[in-house]
Write a structure and sequence with these properties.
six-stranded antiparallel β-barrel, 42% strand, 5 domains, disordered N terminus, conserved putative lor/sdh protein from methanococcus maripaludis s2 fold, alpha+beta, 370 residues, Elongation Factor Tu (Ef-tu), domain 3
Length: 370
């Protein structure tokens, strides 16, 4: 007796026979075999019936047409922003800070006074030296006139007066320079990033009192792996992106390439200088640096995940009519999910990009996309 399930299958088969002719007949024959056999025997009988009817599996795939296009190979690095100029200013004279002229965080001009040190002692020494220099100069002029015009006096007195005048003038100049140093000036235009003294602080020569940074332009420093040494040169194009600035990107060129390799991490340094007119880039910000390694004007570029790894390399599957064909490929440079195929594919080939891991060489396929 036929079960309810077999009756249902037979009804579907009859409907299929009416719609598809031979295919329905094959299904009916299969169901007839199933009705007289057990589970295992039924599967074998169904497969045998499919083979006798000439059935071959057809795999649905998607393809893209291979074409030549420009390919830009990039080197991706992590860099750190640095100020174009960052200077710690030290006192050159000793004394007590009497006046603070600029607060930290303020913009300063080149040569603008920042601090003043007590200069009363030096100012008195300058006045004394000026009087001595004037006396020595007048004495020299009189000795000179008497000796050169009237031959009065001795040559030794003449020379002593001359050298005394020169010595007094040099002493005055040295004291005047020291007096000028009691006022500390900004060495260049920028921002007073830090001030480390207050009014009343006693300072000595060499003591750091302030820090000035210039951020109109910044430098981004990065380390390049040594294997890229032949490809990275000064003047190369660079794109720099800062995640903290919402991924804002800046362009620049390499201004400096290091001549030596760091033995600890096997990298050599590069610096990229770029404009920073709004001051958005701050020193020590982390940046993503993309350096152009090389550009190929015409290359066969395919998605890397369209290739299938095999024991001796990679293969690509292409659609030739309704068949899938395997092509061994030789790969070149890769960038993100794109890779250059140096041999194995030609422009115009229909590359299977969906279903490539299911098909085998010679399988029948049906292109449903691409």
């Amino acid at each position: 007796m036929r079960t309810g399930t077999m009756q249902t299958l037979e009804m579907h088969a009859m409907k299929g026979m009416k719609r598809s002719g031979i295919g329905g007949a094959v299904a009916l024959l299969t169901l007839g075999a199933l009705s007289g056999c057990g589970g295992g025997e039924a599967g074998a009988t169904a497969a045998s019936a499919q083979e006798q009817a000439g059935y071959t599996r057809v795999i649905n795939v998607e393809v893209v047409e291979v074409a030549q296009e420009p390919f830009r190979e990039e080197i991706r690095l992590t860099g750190v922003a640095r100020a174009n100029r960052d200077v710690e200013i030290a006192a050159e004279e000793s004394g007590v800070v009497r006046e603070v002229l600029v607060e930290k965080g303020s913009r300063v001009r080149e040569g603008q006074p920042i601090l003043r040190i007590d200069d009363r002692v030096l100012r008195a020494q300058v006045e004394q030296a000026r009087a001595q220099a004037e006396l020595a100069e007048q004495t020299w002029q009189r000795r000179k006139r008497l000796w050169e015009e009237d031959r009065v006096g001795s040559e030794l007195a003449y020379l002593e007066a001359r050298f005394a005048a020169e010595q007094a003038a040099a002493n005055l100049e040295a004291l005047q320079t020291r007096l000028e140093r009691t006022t500390i000036h900004a060495p260049f235009a920028g921002i007073l990033e830090d001030r480390r003294v207050e009014v009343g602080t006693m300072v000595s020569p060499g003591q750091i009192v302030a820090r000035v940074v210039e951020l109109g332009t910044v430098k981004v420093a990065a380390g390049v792996p040594e294997r890229y040494a032949p490809d990275v040169k000064a003047g190369g194009e660079v794109a720099v992106r800062f995640d903290v600035l919402s991924g804002q990107s800046f362009s620049g060129s390499i201004d400096y390439v290091g001549a030596t390799v760091n033995p600890q991490n096997r990298t050599f340094p590069i610096e990229v200088e770029m404009e920073n007119p709004q001051g958005l880039i701050k020193p020590e910000m982390v940046a993503s640096v993309v350096v152009e390694r090389r550009t190929l004007s015409e290359a066969v570029v395919v998605p890397q995940d369209a290739l299938v790894r095999v024991a001796d390399g990679y293969v690509a599957f292409v659609a030739e009519g309704d068949l899938a064909r395997a092509r061994p490929v030789e790969l070149g440079p890769a960038q993100r999910n794109q890779v250059v195929v140096q041999s194995g594919l030609e422009p115009g080939d229909r590359l299977i990009v969906v279903g490539q891991r299911t098909v085998a060489d010679g399988d029948r396929i049906a292109v449903v996309g691409g």
